[in-house]
């Protein structure tokens, strides 16, 4: 039997007033039950609720829960996004193990039992992987699929269908928080930490209350961030394309010259052959500059060493 350990559960919440009155009691009862289980060495737990700058009653609800059930509440000064809200919660987690879970309970809480068992068997990381996605829309399922495919293509080491439902030991958490970059891409960094890792499969449920807080804009920004913080593949692709175009145009110039000298000696106005390549190359150059700009922008943000989140209150 493993020696007793404590658990912190980090829950990012953004405008979740419709979910919290259900989620918190359910999770609280579930975790309390785990503590009393004979087959687990869990000694105690704490919920860390992070309000990611909600504009509804989320923070009032969190404050009430901290009084009722002794959870910890963290209010961020504005909306920093899911990933940073989670990091804010993780930065105050000091238990032996930490689990992160969304506040809509789309992820099956029963998988936490398997995660704890994996930890007791020596795993430092237990990653929740979606076996199925409930009634997620066709759009959501396919954008997710495309996203994981793209990440793989770009050489980022991610675990397909693993989002942010996972267990980390305090050791793994320390290693994670030692990464000081501002754009911390958790789904890429965590699998790359090494350590003994278990994969826990579960069926993802549909969202019962409220709308998804991941707008298309937030999803796109997560995808771009994932690619650019993990791989220079787009840059290499651009460089290769540039060289190829350059060599081809040299060949073309050579060919035109030969034709002019040895085949037809009449001068052709050649408007199309001048203007079209110019336009084409111009477009290509702008495209390349856009991609390079993405990286430059990233460097710009990194060198500033801005904090990833600012905590307003702790209760
Ligand atoms: N969330 C957050 N900040 C945001 C967006 C989302 O803290 O800017 C939280 C949200 O409250 C939820 C979790 O992140 O607990 C996942 O969001 P959601 O369920 O909307 O994403 P989906 O399951 O649709 O991918
Ligand atoms: Mg959700």
TrEMBL record:
UniProt-recorded Gene Ontology molecular function terms: glycosyltransferase activity
Assigned GO CC terms: plasma membrane
Originating organism: Martelella lutilitoris
Upper classification of the organism: Bacteria, Pseudomonadati, Pseudomonadota, Alphaproteobacteria, Hyphomicrobiales
Assigned keywords, A-Z: Glycosyltransferase, Membrane, Transferase, Transmembrane, Transmembrane helix
Coiled-coil segments on the chain, per record: none
UniProt keyword annotation of Glycosyltransferase present: yes
Pfam families in alphabetical order: Glycos_transf_2
Intracellular or extracellular location(s): Membrane
Keyword S-adenosyl-L-methionine: no
Protein name: Glycosyltransferase family 2 protein
Membrane protein topology class: Multi-pass membrane protein
Transmembrane portions of the chain: 237-258, 278-297
Domain Glycosyltransferase 2-like: 9-176
InterPro entries, sorted: Glyco_trans_2-like, Glycosyltransferase_2, Nucleotide-diphossugar_trans
């Amino acid at each position: 039997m493993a020696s007793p350990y404590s658990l912190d559960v980090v829950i990012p919440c953004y405008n979740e007033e419709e979910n919290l009155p259900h989620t918190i009691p359910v999770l609280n009862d579930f975790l309390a039950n785990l503590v009393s289980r004979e087959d687990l060495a869990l000694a105690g737990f704490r919920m860390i609720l992070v309000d990611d700058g909600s504009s509804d009653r989320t923070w009032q609800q969190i404050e009430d829960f901290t009084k009722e059930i002794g959870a910890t509440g963290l209010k961020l000064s504005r909306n920093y996004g899911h990933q940073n809200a989670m990091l804010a919660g993780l930065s105050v987690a000091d238990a032996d193990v930490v689990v992160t879970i969304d506040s809509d309970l789309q992820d099956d809480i029963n998988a936490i039992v398997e995660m704890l068992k994996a930890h007791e068997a020596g795993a430092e990381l237990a990653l929740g992987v979606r076996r199925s996605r409930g009634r997620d829309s066709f759009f959501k399922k396919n954008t997710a699929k495309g996203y994981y495919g793209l990440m793989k293509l770009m050489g980022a080491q991610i675990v397909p269908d693993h989002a942010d439902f996972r267990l980390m030991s305090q050791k793994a958490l320390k290693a994670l928080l030692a990464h000081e970059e501002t754009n911390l891409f958790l789904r890429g960094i965590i699998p790359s930490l090494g350590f003994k890792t278990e994969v826990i499969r579960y069926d993802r449920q549909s969202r019962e209350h409220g709308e998804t807080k991941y707008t298309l804009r937030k999803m796109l920004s997560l995808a771009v961030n994932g690619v650019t913080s993990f791989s220079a593949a787009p840059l290499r692709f651009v460089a290769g394309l540039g060289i190829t175009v350059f060599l081809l145009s040299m060949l073309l110039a050579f060919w035109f010259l030969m034709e002019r000298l040895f085949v037809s000696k009449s001068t052709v106005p050649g408007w199309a052959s001048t203007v079209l390549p110019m336009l084409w190359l111009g477009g290509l150059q702008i495209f390349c500059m856009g991609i390079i700009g993405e990286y430059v922008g990233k460097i710009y943000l990194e060198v500033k060493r801005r904090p990833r989140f600012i905590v307003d209150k702790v209760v």
